[in-house]
Write a structure and sequence with these properties.
Blueprint (H helix, E strand, L loop, with lengths): L1 H44 L1 E2 L2 E2 L2 H7 L2 H4 L2 H6 L4 H10 L3 H34 E2 L3 H7 L8 H12 L4 H8 L11 H25 L3 H9 L4 H29 L3 H6 L7 H10 L3 H30 L11 E2 L6 H27 L11 H6 L11 H30 L4 H15 L2 H13 L2 E3 L2 E3 L3 H26 L3 H9 L4 H12 L1 H17 L2 H6 L8 H10 L3 H25 L6
Parallel strand pairs: 3-4
Antiparallel strand pairs: 1-2, 5-6
Helix pairs in contact: 1-15, 1-18, 1-20, 2-15, 6-10, 6-12, 8-10, 8-16, 8-27, 10-12, 11-12, 12-15, 14-15, 18-19, 18-21, 18-24, 18-26, 19-21, 20-21, 21-24, 22-23, 24-27, 26-27
Length: 593
């Protein structure tokens, strides 16, 4: 009996240290997989010949290639007005510089995303129609949709042999070449980010208090005046939030610009990748630090604005929705025209990719490209599809093993009060503000190249670094799916379990985990989908090795002008994305809100 009691005491002591140990292990993993690699890039950018120096940063900030006419302003602050005037007069790559062009394409992409997203938000918020719930769910697709797949769809739809040019040829009109133009990059960014605008603005529109509108109408305001004076002010914070998020995402966009623009229309991310490929590591580090500083500032501004915009929320009576199908009027005709635009921008690229994956060169039907993926045909390049599929599945499994426990621990820590919880919240957001290219570059510098310790060089293999990069990008989605469910639990259930003798760890396993299982499953689906579609860090870490994944293989096939294999593998990525999306949509989590 005494032995049994001693066994229970040891078990309780082990359970008491389990959570602190898990927290310490998670913190150590974050240091190794995120903060140390990013810190390595920072050190590289502020050192020269082994000594601390700002020369690498100064070289970038005073180079007209990077900052355009502002280079003179940096070298000579007294000439800022003249330099700024020259910069503003030339909205192109030579006048803006690389950073200026990156901002310019992000502004254009944000405007296009708003133009495509706001009518969709109006439709979802103000009209009732069959399939409305499914359409609303689809606005979460960009969170799991591989961006390289979007690029493949746009090449298939708007390339030389795409349906757009087929239609123009059929009408006897000259064809157009959109690939490697700014227009197709902006359009692809809008495809990717307009659903985010729809989701944010539609939620705000549905929270507009109908009583305020009715009061304005009773005081003599016309419908237009009531909309302008009552509804629009309540929508502006959501519109600004969607615009700021879209700008951040398009400012750091990489696969879409690389595939559809190349070095001809390079942004900071694309040029950073080129510098790493050419082993110009000091220049790449300086570029990465400046870009990260800008993205962190934008993310901080977004968080501050979001906190101010959501302060003082109140329960509202939503505006009634009206049937979409009804007597034709100006609004419904406009929405019909919008539906045609949506079909061209959103449906055509996906449909074109699927069609191109089974289209033979002679115009017939073929499954040769899928046979190629299964290894039943010779590879036209050194990039073997079987290796890519195998690596993607293995890396996805490794990502799940790391990201789900990390996300669960961070979600638990984020619910505590005080400074520690706020720091955990910041830690969970850092991967959103640091681009995958920077993370990949940091892992390459800090872990793959290795570090000297006690006379020994410690290094990890490329596949291990890739799993680490994928886990860094995936764990925040686990946190954001699990934390709301944890916060909504009835704490009396946990207290009852503790009162009956359960330790904190035992209460977590027996009470909390079963209740938050849907959020964990949704977070795991996010993590797997993000790993399968991750490109930014993988393309750096897989360079020169057999650790490439499906997205990297897609980009290489596009570079080799082999559209068939690229569309077939893009279709496989779409299938994996669709499966993950179904799990996420069924189980809810953070993104059902």
């Amino acid at each position: 009996m005494a032995g049994l009691r001693r066994g229970h005491a040891k078990s309780r002591r082990a359970e008491r240290v389990a959570l602190p140990l898990a927290g310490g292990l998670t913190a150590a993993l974050l240091v190794v997989m995120l903060y140390y690699p990013v810190g390595t890039v920072l050190v590289e950018a502020v050192t020269s010949n082994g000594t601390v120096s700002l020369a690498p940063l100064a070289d970038v900030l005073t180079d007209p290639f990077y900052v355009g006419a502002l280079a003179d302003a940096v070298r000579n602050p007294a000439g800022i007005p003249a330099g700024l005037a020259a910069w503003l007069r030339r909205p192109d790559i030579p006048g803006f510089g690389l950073f200026g062009f990156t901002v310019w394409q992000a502004l254009l992409s944000t405007a296009a995303s708003l133009a495509l997203g706001l009518p969709g938000a109006y439709t979802l918020a103000r009209f009732e129609f069959p399939g409305r719930g499914a359409l609303r769910s689809l606005t979460a697709v960009p969170f799991v949709l591989p961006s390289i797949m979007v690029a493949v769809g746009f090449v298939a739809a708007f390339g030389k042999t795409g349906p757009l040019n087929d239609l123009l040829r059929g009408l006897g009109l000259p064809t157009i070449e959109l690939v490697f133009t700014l227009e197709i990059i902006v359009l692809a960014h809008a495809f990717y980010n307009a659903p985010l605008v729809v989701r944010i603005v539609a939620a705000a529109w549905e929270s507009v208090d109908a009583r305020a509108v009715e009061t304005a109408r009773s005081l003599g305001a016309s419908p237009t005046r009531a909309f302008r004076d009552v509804v629009v002010p309540q929508l502006l914070p959501a519109i600004a939030t969607g615009a700021l998020l879209t700008f951040i995402f398009t400012f750091m966009s990489f696969p879409i610009v690389l595939a559809l623009g190349g070095l001809k229309l390079a942004t900071v991310e694309v040029w950073l990748f080129d510098r790493v490929q050419n082993l110009e590591l000091t220049e790449a580090a300086a570029l990465a630090v400046i870009e990260t500083a800008v993205s962190l500032a934008l993310t901080y501004a977004y968080l501050r604005y979001e906190a101010a915009a959501t302060r003082g929320d109140r329960v509202a009576t939503p505006l009634p929705r009206e049937p979409l199908i009804g007597p034709p009027d100006l609004r419904r005709v406009g929405l019909l025209a919008y539906g045609l635009v949506v079909a061209v921008v959103f449906v055509l690229p996906v449909a074109s990719m699927l069609a191109a994956s089974v289209a033979a060169p002679d115009g017939g039907f073929t499954i040769r490209y899928y046979e190629f993926l299964l290894g039943q045909r010779a590879a036209p390049s050194a990039t073997k599809p079987g290796v890519a599929v195998r690596n993607s599945l293995l890396f996805g499994a490794g990502t799940l093993a790391l990201a789900v426990p990390m996300g669960l621990v961070l979600a638990l820590a984020s619910l505590r009060e005080g400074l520690a919880a706020r720091l955990v919240g910041v830690a969970a957001m850092v991967p959103f503000a640091v681009s995958g290219v920077v993370v990949g570059f940091g892992l390459l510098e800090g872990l793959v190249f290795g570090v000297e310790a006690f006379g020994t060089r410690l290094a990890v293999a490329g596949p291990v670094a890739i799993v680490a990069a994928h886990a860094v990008g995936a764990y925040p989605f686990v946190v954001r799916n699990v934390a709301p469910l944890l916060g909504g639990l009835d704490r009396r259930l946990v207290e009852s379990a503790r009162a009956l003798g359960a330790t904190r760890a035992r209460a977590l396993v027996d009470v909390e985990v079963p209740l938050i299982a849907p959020g964990i499953a949704a977070g795991a689906a996010f993590a797997f989908a993000i790993s399968i579609g991750e490109f930014d860090s993988t393309v750096i870490l897989a360079e020169g090795s057999d650790a490439y994944t499906m997205p990297v293989a897609v980009e290489r096939y596009l570079t080799d002008r082999t559209l068939g294999p690229a569309t077939a593998m893009g279709s496989v990525l779409l299938g994996v994305t669709a499966g993950s999306f179904l799990v996420i949509d069924r189980l809810g989590g953070r993104y059902r809100e």
